């Protein structure tokens, strides 16, 4: 039993146990990535809300009201779609980057703060872009926050694995 | 040897072993995620098929036939591209959400059924959107199926990791 | 201690240790995925460079210069955006596919070569598409390289997990 315990404690510090609920960094990643997944999926619903509010539909089979034609360039719909596309461009690579960053066994405090700041920044990005447009540079700052955090994680991982080029 | 065996059986129930081929939930994820990856990549090829069929190319260097100009608003090509974009908006976040959902050690039957239903729903989504357009609400139902499954997984993960906010 | 060592060496060959820095295949994945993440994020900055160079902005709040109106169809900006979208369509599914491919414990040499070739191919794709347009089939070949590698990985994973359908 003591052998099992010592074995298990050894396991905790080995790099093989990063992706478990016993690792607080991974748990923090789980929580905030889930928040961002939900935020991204809500963009689809926000697009749908705008489509029904302004009666702008892109497919023949979506014309739920009489005397409508397909339309593509409504500014209210397109703004939400641009915000959604920006999410895909930035949050999806961040999901992978931050996940593999965990495998380098980073300092727990640093990693958790990065996850929190990056996630909150993207929520602000959505608010100032798609929900209630606000003058620049609010959106640029929110955008740059996650971008720089992702670059930092990339530098950590790349330096650590440079010999496998 | 008996110690090794007991150790190995202990490992199976620890949360550290979720992402191995010994975990049937992970294997089910592997199979159906692979199906969805292939499905998504086929959208690129379907777009190419439409581009050659209707001779619609977006770049100067793609004009493989004489007397063509770049064109962007062909309805046959754009329909496939909208379906493809919808895949990116929904399936890519689902990949991450369902992967991290596995780390919470969910009930194997529930998890596998969710993976299967979500994947089949997205195949149907593609068929009724891009291959053979069908009246609504067929596409909305296929879309909502994966969306609700992803939200369910998000709820499970978020509740489990709420203390790491 | 010798027991611990033998246990640890046993662990290395078990499928549960794929996602650690002790696995050279995973390290190679880490390095090249990081390169691709950075490459993708640079597309955002390249788009921004084009927007400022040609003064093409899609939102009212982005009009940093006087007497400008929002504009959407500038060919220089749209070319970079198409290249960026193509990255999302291909690299993001590849991230997931190659990550889960590692769990099947592939031959290290084969896996590392695939990661390197796929990544370099996409860098070439960006160069010949968005940076300095080059006649076809250069872009098609770069595109097809990662596509075929992803299909190969999909075949390996699907055959290995076919019983979990």
Helix percent of chain A reads over 70%
Structural class, from secondary structure content of chain A?
mainly alpha
Please, what is the average pLDDT of chain A?
88
List low-confidence stretches of chain A.
1-13
CATH A-level architecture of chain A = Up-down Bundle
Biggest beta sheet summary of chain A = none
Count all strands of chain A and give the number.
0
Q: How would you spell out the order of helices and strands of chain A?
A: HHHHH
Return the CATH topology of chain A: Four Helix Bundle (Hemerythrin (Met), subunit A)
Organism (chains A, B, C): Drosophila melanogaster
EC number (chains A, B, C): 2.5.1.18
Catalytic activity (chains A, B, C): RX + glutathione = an S-substituted glutathione + a halide anion + H(+)
Subunit structure (chains A, B, C): Homotrimer; The trimer binds only one molecule of glutathione.
How are the elements arranged and paired?
The structure is a homotrimer of 165-residue chains.
Chain A: H1 2-13, H2 24-54, H3 75-102, H4 108-131, H5 138-160
Structure description:
3 copies of one chain form a homotrimer. In chain A, α3 (75-102) packs antiparallel against α4. Chain A is built from 5 helices and no strands. Helices cover 72% and strands 0% of the residues of chain A. The longest helix of chain A is centred in the first third of the chain and has 31 residues, at 24-54. Chain A is elongated. Chain A is mainly alpha-helical and 165 residues long. Chain A has one domain: Four Helix Bundle (Hemerythrin (Met), subunit A) (Up-down Bundle), CATH 1.20.120. Chains in contact: A-B, A-C, B-C. The A-B interface holds A 3-4, 7, 11, 16-17, 19-22, 24, 26-31, 33-35, 37-38, 40-41, 43-44, 58-62, 64, 84, 88, 92, 95, 99, 112 and B 3, 7, 10, 14-16, 18-19, 79, 82, 88-90, 92-93, 96-97, 100, 103-105, 129, 133-136, 139, 147, 150-151, 154, 157-158, 160-165. Chains A, B, C: It is an enzyme of class 2 (transferase). Chains A, B, C: Belongs to the MAPEG family. Chains A, B, C: Homotrimer; The trimer binds only one molecule of glutathione. Chains A, B, C: It catalyses: RX + glutathione = an S-substituted glutathione + a halide anion + H(+).
């Amino acid at each position: 039993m003591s052998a099992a315990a010592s074995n298990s404690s050894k396991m905790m510090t080995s790099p093989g146990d990063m992706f478990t609920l016993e690792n607080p960094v991974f748990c923090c990643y789980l929580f905030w990535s889930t928040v961002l997944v939900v935020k991204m999926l809500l963009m689809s619903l926000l697009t749908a809300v705008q489509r029904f509010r302004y009666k702008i539909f892109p497919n023949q089979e979506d014309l739920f009201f009489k005397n409508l034609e397909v339309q593509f360039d409504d500014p209210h719909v397109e703004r939400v779609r641009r915000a959604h596309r920006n999410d895909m461009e930035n949050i999806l690579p961040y999901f992978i980057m931050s996940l593999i960053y965990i495998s380098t066994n980073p300092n727990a405090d640093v990693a958790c703060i990065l996850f929190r700041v990056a996630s909150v920044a993207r929520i602000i990005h959505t608010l100032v872009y798609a929900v209630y447009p606000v003058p620049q540079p609010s959106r640029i700052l929110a955008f740059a926050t996650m971008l720089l955090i992702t670059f930092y994680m990339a530098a950590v991982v790349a330096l650590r694995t440079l010999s496998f080029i």
